[in-house]
Amino acid sequence: MGKGRIEAFSDGVIAIIITIMVLELKVPEGFDLESLRPVGPVFCAYVLSFIYVGIYWNNHHHMFHTVQKVNGATLWANLHLLFWLSLLPAVTHWLGESHLAAWPTALYGVVLLMCAIAYFILAHVMVRHHGPDSTLARALGSDRKGKLSVAVYLAGAALAFVAPWISAALYALMAAIWLVPDRRIERVLTE
């Protein structure tokens, strides 16, 4: 079957995720700069999560650009990814409101970990469907950044009970690493 519906559905779900996250931002109580202080942590968590959702949307778009068809396994793997992404608004708000308390910081890392695992599964389901010589398989290669992400999110979730600020720094570092454009797919498509 064609890929148009899965792309449109995914774009819609991701747009809703971003909308829910922004609706969690509250207007400050006062009208001076000091009134921004209480909403600062929630806003910082929102910015980090917005970046993550943007990274997943961008990579999802690029990945689907390499294929022409999908199968049932791809549909379910994609839903699996969207499920974990849909939890980002809840853990983002909890993280921001908690001021980096251990459990919210750890759970944020677990959701990021599960998003990374779900994306890995989706990519491998699509490679299995299109073959090891497919454009997608060549573009993904060994996927070092994907494997590094899993390790960093796991470490961040565990470190949340020791030093939550280190966890937050790891989550931000991983977002920064993924913000650097990944040209693997674009390079393979232009060959």
TrEMBL record:
Keywords: Ion channel, Ion transport, Membrane, Potassium, Potassium channel, Potassium transport, Transmembrane, Transmembrane helix, Transport. This is Putative membrane protein. Its main location: membrane. It holds the Pfam family TMEM175. GO terms for molecular function: potassium channel activity; proton channel activity. It comes from Paraburkholderia rhizosphaerae. Belongs to the TMEM175 family. The chain crosses the membrane at residues 9-27, 39-58, 70-94, 106-127, 148-180. One of its GO terms (cellular component) is membrane. It is found in: Membrane. It is a multi-pass membrane protein.
